[in-house]
Structure formats: C-alpha cells, structure tokens
Design a protein that fits this description.
509 residues; 3-stranded antiparallel β-sheet
Length: 509
C-alpha cells in the first residue's frame, strides 16, 4: 500500500490537500482514474527513461480517491505528477518483467541448468547499451550469480538494488544459497538476520514464492547448525507456500538430511526418492544430488555394496565433478575391503578443491583401516593437525578426524593419546550440535585402561549422557510429527531410542 498527498478543489472552490492512504498501482491494467493527458505523459516518460521497447499499461486505483471524486472534489493530478511517477516506478521495480532480450534469456536458462561455463560465454557477448532498465537489473543479478568471489562484491550489488525490493530479495537469496552451498559456518546466520531486519515482517512483505524460498533457505541454515527441529519447521512452512516443483524437490532433498542424521532411514529414503523423481522428470542436473543422498542412506545403513553402486551411478550422470562423489566412493570401497580401488578414487578426489577437509578425512579413514597408529598420526601431523589448515575445515570433518585418531590410538594401546583426541573429537562435534556423533564417539572408545578416569570425566565434563537423553526426547517423534507434511509412513521401530543397544549397526562417519 502506497500513500500520496494530493491537491484538490472542493465544489465551493476550497483548496484541500487530502492524504490518500490506499493508493495502488496495477501494472498491465486499463487506466481508470487518471486524466488521459496525464496518463499518456506518464507512459511516455516511463518508456523513455526506462528504455522500454513497448509501452506499459497501468492503472492507479484508490477507494479514498474515488470517494473524494464522487463528492465533487477535483484532484489536481498535474500538481502531483512527479510523485505519482515515483509511485509507478517503485511498483514497476517490484514487478518481475518477462525478459525480451534473447541472449539474456539464454544466459538465465543456462545458469538455472547449472551450465555455468556456457552461461559465462554468452554473458560476455551482451552489450549493456542494448538493455532496458529491467533487463540491465537482470543482467547485474546474473553477473553476481556468475561471480566466484560473491563475498567481496555483495555490498555493491545490494546498493544497486536498493529501490527494487524484488531484485534485492532475490540477491539475498542467491547469496544465502551460495554461502550455504560452500558450508560457510558464520555468514548465513548473519545474512538471515539482515533480511529479517531489513524487511521486518516476512509474512507481510514477502509474496508466497518469496516466503517459500526464504523459509527453505533458513531451514537449510538451521540444519547446518545442527538445529534439526527448527530446520524441519521451516521446511514445513516452505512447503505451505511452495508452488513450483523445482523448489519442492529442493525442500524434500534438504529435509532428507534431517531424517538421515536422526537415523530415520525409511523416511529419508522416501523423501530422497521423491526429490530424485521430480528432478528426473524436470530433467534437472540436481537429480545427481538426490541420488547422492540415496547413496548416503545406504552407506549409513551399512549396505555398502548398494551404496557403491549408487555412487557409481552418480558419477556417471554428474556433468560437473567435484571431490564429494569421489570421497563417497572412497568410503564405500573401503567398507567393501577394496583398498586399492579406494586409493584410485582418492587420487581423483585430490584433484579437486578440498578447503573443507573432506578428502583429507577420506584418506585418514583409508589409513585407519589399513595401517597402524603411527602412520595415521604422521599423516595427521602433516595434513590434519596444522592450525592454519584446520581453521577452514568443516566441524564434522574435525570431529571424525579426531575420532579416528582416538580409536586407532586406543587399538594400539596409546591410551593417553586416545583420551586427548577423543576430547577434541567431542568438542568439535558439539559445536555444531552433532549430539549423536559425540555420544557415538564416546561409547565406541575402549575406556577399560589405566586412564579410565580421564575418559569417564569426558562424559561428566560435556554432560554427554544428559545431552543425549535430551536429544532423544526432542527428536524421537519427528517421524510421527512430520509424516503428513512429507507424505511418508512413520517407522515401526524408533531407531533413535534403540541407539545405544544397536550402536554397531550405525555407520556414522
């Protein structure tokens, strides 16, 4: 709703300045109130200033204004033409305009299909002078999407879209998804806070599509911080507003992780398959991400042969490779006992960027399975325990890396080392609220040695049993609570409540 101060003359020639609180601009609608001369002047001004190929139709509507005119108040639209122009311009800025520029349309299509290199090639050929104002803003948004260093340039683009709230929201969403995809552990939370502060009331200031995207992205951020209940609540809200299948598949894909990490494998398998089928139908390259999730479920269920077969399929259908799929293939082949094959996949994984440390963890796992503690410790000293390297590693990588060192040290009767590494493992797990993993690590380490008191103190210091019991209390009902939301049948057995009894059935690394 927009407000305007207009000049008017009553039937007895008295000048008034009524404040109109409910001015609305409808784009592509026939004019109803404005005098023909004023209307045509505004259209010409818009066409010229915005470099439009075609004229834009619009209509100014207001119940307050109509009521004044019914009471014989003559409105001096000429006096307020500049103010009316600004109102129309703001409305146009917040309207999604269909792109007419063929190259720009093609770049957008290629980007949406994750064909980034092809998108960049065409993008470079676009002449800025040929673009209308709306096409230029779309051009700048695509430019931001195609930038590698988004962290460096975000503020500049944000200033560019200050008056265009639709583009500003999309810019926020693009940046937030980028940060979540690279697993940035700080910026997404701050960015979400900025969005909530800038727009104040999400439910009122966002349309349905924007709300669906916002809650989906906020849910992903909650998940990344180990706040699974908040994540699922946001995924549910996103589903309530979601109106397109591409986003629907993404919601199911992300929600899968919350159930997998809580050992609800049947539910997770159902949702990952649903995401995969939607993406397969839409011919989206992201179908490989869903298939990778399915492989991860097989892996945690200890169906290593099926996991390996699934990850091989992912490798075959993925256009743009990274180290993630090869890290999974390393784990699968290790668990099948194919250590030479695991080395082959590890060598491929090393060709890709490993800023977060997952390939280093995969190699530690191979050494853990095939060599002694001294070999594992020597490798860790060079690749894992270095402070500068470690600062960028994902917390779950640090948790499992220290656990492997603790477990191997214990097996080789280096119990004091085992204690120190276990303590670090649990500390890192708890930073991102990996309660199950922390408790698993504690229970799996042999504590029957001369340092048993040290190990038992870890439980007391971190209140592991208490944290675990509280976690089970909060999370064990998510299958029942969300079965209608996601459409699965809830599990007959509660894997979480049987966690301690069935510890050896879980492959959590």
């Amino acid at each position: 709703m927009t407000k305007l101060n207009l000049k008017g003359t009553t039937f007895n020639d008295k000048i008034i300045y009524p404040k109109i609180d409910d001015i609305h601009i409808l784009i592509d609608k026939e004019n109803t109130i404005l005098p023909v001369g004023i209307y045509n002047e505004l259209k010409n001004k818009l066409k010229e200033n915005l470099k439009l190929n075609d004229e834009i139709e619009f209509s100014l509507i207001s119940k307050d204004l109509e009521e004044l005119m019914k009471n014989d108040v003559k409105i001096d639209f000429r006096d307020s033409i500049d103010e009316i122009y600004k109102v129309i311009l703001d409305e146009l800025n917040n309207k999604t305009i269909n792109l007419q520029h063929e190259s720009l349309k093609r770049v957008k299509e290629l980007y949406d299909n994750r064909k980034i290199d092809d998108a960049i090639e065409i993008f470079k050929t676009i002449e800025i002078d040929t673009l209308s104002k709306f096409e230029f803003e779309e051009y700048k948004l695509l430019e931001f999407k195609l930038f590698d260093d988004k962290k460096k340039f975000f503020d500049g683009y944000k200033a560019l879209f200050e008056r265009n709230h639709t583009k500003l929201k999309e810019l926020y969403f693009v940046y937030l998804k980028y940060l979540e995809d690279i697993r940035d552990d700080k910026r997404p939370k701050k960015l979400i806070e900025n969005i909530e502060e800038e727009f104040f009331n999400i439910e009122q200031e966002f349309n349905r599509d924007e709300k669906a995207i916002f809650y989906y992205l906020r849910g992903r951020n909650f998940y990344a911080r180990g706040e699974f209940l908040d994540a699922l609540r946001d995924f549910k809200k996103s589903l309530e507003y979601c109106s397109n299948e591409k986003l629907l598949a993404s919601i199911y894909n992300s929600a899968t992780n919350s159930f997998t990490d809580n050992l609800f494998f049947d539910e997770a398998f159902f949702m990952a398959n649903k995401a995969f089928e939607i993406r397969k139908k839409l011919k989206l390259s992201e179908k490989s991400d869903s298939l990778s999730l399915i492989g991860g479920i097989y892996l945690k269920r200890k169906n290593f042969k099926k996991a390996y077969e699934t990850f091989k399929e992912v490798e075959e259908i993925t256009d743009k490779k990274d180290n993630r799929i090869y890290n999974y293939l390393v784990k699968s082949t290790i668990m099948l006992g194919f250590y030479n094959k695991a080395k082959e996949y590890l060598n491929i994984a090393k060709k890709y960027d490993d800023r977060l440390g997952f390939t280093i963890l995969a190699e530690m796992f191979l050494i853990y399975k095939t060599q002694n503690y001294e070999k594992l410790f020597d490798y860790a000293k060079e690749n894992f325990l270095i402070t500068d390297k470690k600062s960028s590693f994902d917390k779950v990588v640090l948790g499992w890396g220290y656990f492997l060192l603790a477990q191997k040290a214990s097996q080789d009767e280096k119990y004091l080392d085992s204690y120190k590494f276990l303590n670090s493992s649990i500390e890192y797990f708890l930073i991102d609220k990996y309660i199950l993993e922390a408790y698993y690590a504690y229970l799996k380490i042999d504590k029957d040695n001369e340092y048993s008191e040290y190990f038992l103190n870890i439980n007391k210091e971190y209140n592991l049993k208490g944290e675990f019991d509280e976690y089970i209390k909060k999370h064990s009902s998510i299958s029942i609570e969300y079965k209608d939301t996601f459409g699965f049948s809830s599990s007959k057995s509660n894997n979480l409540e049987n966690f301690e009894q069935n510890l050896d059935n879980y492959f959590l690394i």
